[in-house]
């Protein structure tokens, strides 16, 4: 054990968390061969095989499982210590990792980040666009702008407001439907654009499942931005974020959601979040305060 490189353990842990060598490489920002080299070095130092190599991928051995269990909690404690030390940094400089969805990055966040960087040129921004919650407890990001009606209780932050949605279709699609004698509000008679299983938790997916027969959802996508693109090209009707769809001249807002569906659940809250250990760090505090004031223009209704 005296030859053990603790950096190798970090690579081993990344494979355990990501489930594959490729996922570990993406998480750590290195290439595939670097991860393999680190694992080989760890196995040589320990004198055991941690993974069996198959064409389909790596499978953990009993020794690997024992090591994984032995490391349980170590990485979290290291990350907690890093956050605690980082929280003492009171200078308006350094790096901030910001995560958000592709929808919010394009629809509202990017201009605000540009204005913040002009005001604080010594702060380096790293934007991670990801449609799932990154783990702020593990310092995968420092600040999150996320749409969520139930943000994680481990994070602190402020609710900016709610994003509304409505039913949209292209003018061309509606003209074609009218020629077939299909009324605009006859939901089961239309083709629909829906979201795939990765976004099944969103209000738009739940509304479609409740209001539209499954066979009428003729196109599914994995992005709200792509959903707007598909509707603009006439592929069907879709429940879209007004923030995005109202900017499209080729789309028409047909109706609000079916009133039988809880309208409050159709709207999506937007939260500005960070970890409690970082909230008083000067650069993080400056960014969250700036974004809160700068982004409120997107939410004309009073927030709480």
Automatic annotation (TrEMBL):
Superkingdom of origin organism: Bacteria
Keywords: DNA-binding, Transcription, Transcription regulation
InterPro entries registered for this protein in UniProt: LysR-type_TF_proteobact-type (IPR058163), LysR_HTH_N (IPR000847), LysR_subst-bd (IPR005119), WH-like_DNA-bd_sf (IPR036388), WH_DNA-bd_sf (IPR036390)
UniProt-recorded Gene Ontology molecular function terms: DNA-binding transcription factor activity; sequence-specific DNA binding
Start and end residues of each HTH lysR-type domain: 4-61
PROSITE patterns, alphabetized: HTH_LYSR
Gene3D superfamilies (UniProt xref): 3.40.190.290, Winged helix-like DNA-binding domain superfamily/Winged helix DNA-binding domain
The family this protein is said to belong to: Belongs to the LysR transcriptional regulatory family.
Protein name (record): DNA-binding transcriptional regulator, LysR family
């Amino acid at each position: 054990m005296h030859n053990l490189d603790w950096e190798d353990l970090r690579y081993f842990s990344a494979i355990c968390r990501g489930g594959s060598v490729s996922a570990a490489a993406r998480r750590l920002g290195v290439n595939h061969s670097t991860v393999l080299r680190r694992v080989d070095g760890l196995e040589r130092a320990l004198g055991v095989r941690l993974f069996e190599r198959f064409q389909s991928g790596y499978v953990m051995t009993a020794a690997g499982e024992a090591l994984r269990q032995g490391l349980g909690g170590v990485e979290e404690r290291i990350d907690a210590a890093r956050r605690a030390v980082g929280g003492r940094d009171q200078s308006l400089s350094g790096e901030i990792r910001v995560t958000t969805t592709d929808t919010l990055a394009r629809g509202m966040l990017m201009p605000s980040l540009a204005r913040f960087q002009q005001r604080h040129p010594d702060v380096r921004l790293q934007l991670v666009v990801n449609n799932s919650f990154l783990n702020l407890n593990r310092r995968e990001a420092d600040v999150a702008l996320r749409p969520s009606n139930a943000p994680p209780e481990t994070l602190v932050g402020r609710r900016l407001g709610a994003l509304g949605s409505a039913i949209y279709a292209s003018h061309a699609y509606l003209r074609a439907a009218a020629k077939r004698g299909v009324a605009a509000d006859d939901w089961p008679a239309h083709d629909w654009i829906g979201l795939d299983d990765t976004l099944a938790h969103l209000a738009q997916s739940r509304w479609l499942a409740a209001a539209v027969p499954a066979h009428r959802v003729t196109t599914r996508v994995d992005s709200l931005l792509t959903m707007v693109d598909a509707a603009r090209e006439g592929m069907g009707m879709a429940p879209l974020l007004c923030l995005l769809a109202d900017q499209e001249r080729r789309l028409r807002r047909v109706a609000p959601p079916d009133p039988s569906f809880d309208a409050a659940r159709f709207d999506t809250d937007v939260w500005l979040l960070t970890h409690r250990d970082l909230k008083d760090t000067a650069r993080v505090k400056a960014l969250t305060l700036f974004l809160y004031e700068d982004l409120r223009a997107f939410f004309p209704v009073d927030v709480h």
